Input
Amino acid sequence: MTSPVTPDATPQPSLITYPSSFPIKVMGVKVEGLVHAITTIALAFDPDFDASTIELRESKGGKYLGVTVTITATSREQLDELYRTLSTHPVAGHVEMGQGADHRFFKTVDVFFDKV
Output
């Protein structure tokens, strides 16, 4: 009889060097207040966040808006909590966070935006 496998409770080391610039793309229905809500959340997690660096991308049909903010990531815990806060906000339909090679997802989202 084999022993049950127990998951390793040791957290994996982060692949991110802190502090670092970290892009976050939030997609949602294009409504008044979407950009303001995301900006307010970004500032809560990064007091030095520069709102002038926000990138906006409207979907082809104009129904959705992609908002990319780049914050200074200081810890894994900060990023985890930022993701939870954004992904549970009523105006955010989808949240993706990435750095380096993870930008390939952003390209997938951009293709989606070209179709809707």
In short: The longest helix spans residues 103-115. Residues 2 and 25 are 45 Å apart (CA to CA). The beta strands are 20-29, 55-58, 64-73, 94-97.
